[in-house]
Amino acid sequence: MTISHPAPTLLVLLPGMDGTARLFHRFDAALRAQTAIDTQAIAYPAAPLDYAALEAFVRERLPRDRPFVLLAESFSGPLGAALRADPPPGMRALILCCSFVRNPRPMLAPLRHLLELVPFGALPGFALRQALLAPYATPPLQAELSAALAQVPPSVLRQRLRAVLEILEKDALHSFARGSLPVLYLRARHDRLVPPANALQILRQAAGTQLVDIDAPHMLLQAAPAAAAGAVAAFIAGLSAPQALD
Question: In this structure, are residues 217 and 133 in contact, taking their beta carbons and an 8 Å threshold?
Fold first, then answer.
């Protein structure tokens, strides 16, 4: 008699604003070193799509044959929130990493009309390092970030930033609050893009959300992969046994 064992938990990864999914390799290696969790990264098209179009794109690529946990990094938070509000079969939980479900900098919303003037293709590397990696920047991390951003046209980065600034707070929070799946929020203690108080908003909207603080910059998964992997593994281990798919 052959005994079948359930497949390892699948962790679906949604990338930050670069959308390339190229920057997950450090976290993926750390996770595989600690657990038997499988990963599937979904890269976004290098096209200026809004959140609604990206949500449709992601839904078409989610697994249909096994349960999974979704990890939404930074820019992808609103996508994770939308999927939690109307979860596809098999989705068991949501992990938000240095992310948000509403515009994390509402004071900047009026400036969205000026984005056409921002030279995304010519932003100095120092500014990006300060915003995304400081004070944990290393030459390898800087090179990986530059290589990923080089794959994305400035028009796409501009549209993605516009999408963040145009999120309507009331609608976003109401939608997120409708969901019932467990949530883990990974917060970087040295995040210079997403204010620490952003996590408190999420805790208020999703009862029972687990919050883990990690010494890291905004690019938490890249700068502190082992700590992130440990937190993710513990969260997934604490979930109930996989349920049958609908």
Answer: yes
